[in-house]
Every structure is written in structure tokens, then in C-alpha cells.
Amino acid sequence: MFEWIADPDAWLALGTLTILEIILGIDNIIFLSLVVAKLPKAQQSQARRIGLTAAMLMRLALLASITWVIGLTKPLFTVVEHDISTRDLILLCGGLFLVWKSTKEIYESISGDENYHSSNVSSFAGAIVQIMLLDIIFSLDSVITAVGLSDHLFIMMAAVVIAVGVMMFAARPIGEFVNQNPSVKMLALAFLILVGVTLVLESFQMRVPKGYIYFAMFFSIGVETLNWLRGKKNRMTR
């Protein structure tokens, strides 16, 4: 089980997988932050911990049932010469949910109706359910990526645990920064719509290189950060 400790390639795989897991978890953190922001202040930290712990347990469970995960890519039926698998159906439903949720949040922000909450959104249990639903989508993508990069189950699980630990540390400051800056929040919502559309496209075997998506996201965040720093400097000089 621990023979990999003396293998440099195994350590390289662990580092690579950990970085990829963190990158793949960014959209998870953004969605979690937006959902948690709807809750009372006293419940937000608990919701973050439960949401990220659920994400970690779900990833570990999927890795433990690795044969079943691989089977999710087997075709169930064919639509217009495209084979549709269980994974495709999950990605389709998750993508549509993400687009709907993000569009709804944008509408509430623009209409000034951000204080409106339906009963299933404002409740603690409702927030956890939404987080776990998206955890399933993001976990599936994460696990399939891990399976393709390593043959050692322990390495894959270790990468997941380390990545979730980093996300737990980063979730609160990221969430607070997003919610305190309306333009950043709008950017995050637009990014989630992009991720949702990508999931829908992937469900129809239209592969979109993830590198382009994350480059666009980091570039946009970089520009927004420069605008924020300029605004902060202007306020200090007044």
C-alpha cells in the first residue's frame, strides 16, 4: 500500500493531482460561497464545513467504488448518433441547474431583490441540499480526472483530502471577498453560467478544454483585482 512513498513519480502524481483537485474545486467554492451567503451569519461557517466535508466524503466514496465510476461512461442509449451515458445525464442535469441558479442570482442582484429567499433556499437544510447536489457533479468530474492520472488509490484519496483541506482554509476569505464586492460577485456568477454551459456541452460529447475556461476566469479576476486596487488607492488619496 505504501510502496509508492519511495517512488518519485508517485510524489509527482500526488502534487499534480492535488493542484488539479484544487483548481477543479474553485467553481465548487464559488457556488458554495453564494449559497452560504443566503444563510444567517451564525450558520455560515457550519454550512461551509458541512458542504466541503460532504464534497470530500463524496469524492472518497466515488474513488473507493472506482469500477462503478468508470462504468458511468458506458453508453445507455443513442440520441442523434451520440451515445449517452449515466455520466452525461448527470452532467446535463448539473449544468442546467447551475445555469438556472446563477441566472436567478444575477436577476435578484440586478432587480435589487437580493433579500428575497424562497423557503428552500433560506433554510439551512435547503442550502446543504443544494451544495451536495453540485458536489455530486463536481466530484464526478474530479474523480474521473484522478482516475486518468494515477493508478494508486491511496494517492488519489490523499490528493482529495489535501485539496479539500486547502479549500476549507480558503472558502471563508474567498466567500467574504466575493460577497463584499458586487462586481466580483457578478463575475463569479457569470463564471458559474460558463461552467454550467460547459457541463451541458460535455454531456453531448462536445469537449471544451478546461484550460481555456480557467485562463479566462483568472484573467478576469486579475483585471477585477487591478480595478479594486485602483479604487482603493483613489479612496485613500481623497
UniProtKB/TrEMBL annotation:
A Pfam family (short name) is TerC
Which parts pass through the membrane? 12-37, 49-72, 152-174, 186-206, 212-229
Alphabetical UniProt keywords: Membrane, Transmembrane, Transmembrane helix
Q: Which GO terms describe its cellular component?
A: plasma membrane
Matching PANTHER family: COILED-COIL PROTEIN (DUF2040)-RELATED, INNER MEMBRANE PROTEIN
Protein name, per record: TerC family protein
